[in-house]
């Protein structure tokens, strides 16, 4: 199958169940909102060794935030048992500490299920940092917030944050004739995918160069380099998936709150990457259905 002259491998990306939270950070201006967001999503590329997977979802104009200040929405993905700590730690260590910020729940109301959606009182618990000087506020907004005294004034935080079932591990693999082509295609793919709400691409710049496989020859590792997709190993390993003329391979991983959101993001990315000169093929990674129940077939994305 071809698209824009690029071979689209007839395969699928295999993703698995996760839990997702979505929070809004506001600040005095865009600079400080972005600083808080970037800090909050640090060390959050892969749950193989990170506490969570995280990324920026979208920027929000001041006219659309509860406190009429510019904002950025970030999302966190983790197992259900980890999410409470993820929210408390990331907000407490990375957003509370950033000058002028406030934080509100931004989980989509359309996805709320009274029986399945979880709720954690991160704001109430974090308010104890105020050492008795914190104040509960149930009048300013249509939800409860806490005001915590800090050295530049007060930190405002919503009392509780919701999180629900989500999906992690959607992916595209770009094979290109050289590094420059692969990087340009990956950037275009990330830009296109980022236009879809409720989806993040958690790796640096949305792109991962060190795709992994499950297991290793070393007992102390649970994952190791995906040798089948390493161009320098094409003649050294059996079953190499690197096509002729390919010198650089990059992967993009997608986490989202719904299958539809991930499909839209992957479709936008695939089409954008395929239009870049030098791209030879686009494929996806799967574990023959053994990892997760969510399968994103590339032919369906077109």
Could you outline the blueprint of secondary structure elements for this entry?
Layout: E1 2-3, E2 6-8, E3 12-26, H1 30-40, E4 53-60, E5 71-78, H2 80-95, E6 102-105, E7 118-120, H3 122-126, E8 135-137, E9 145-150, E10 153-158, E11 161-176, H4 179-193, E12 199-200, E13 212-214, E14 223-225, E15 248-256, H5 259-274, E16 279-283, E17 294-297, H6 298-301
Parallel strand pairs: 2-16, 6-10
Antiparallel strand pairs: 1-2, 3-5, 3-6, 3-11, 3-17, 4-5, 7-11, 8-9, 9-10, 11-15, 11-16, 12-15, 13-14
Helix pairs in contact: 1-2, 4-5
Describe the structure.
- The protein has helices spanning 30-40, 80-95, 122-126, 179-193, 259-274, 298-301; strands at 2-3, 6-8, 12-26, 53-60, 71-78, 102-105, 118-120, 135-137, 145-150, 153-158, 161-176, 199-200, 212-214, 223-225, 248-256, 279-283, 294-297.
- The chain has 302 residues and is an alpha+beta fold.
- The protein has 2 domains: 2-14 and 167-301, Alpha-Beta Plaits (2-Layer Sandwich); 18-164, Alpha-Beta Plaits.
- The protein has a 15-stranded mixed beta sheet that branches.
- Strand 1 (2-3) and strand 2 form a beta hairpin.
- The chain is elongated, with a radius of gyration of 21 Å.
- The termini are close together.
Quickly list its features.
two-stranded antiparallel ribbon, Alpha-Beta Plaits, 302 residues, 2 domains
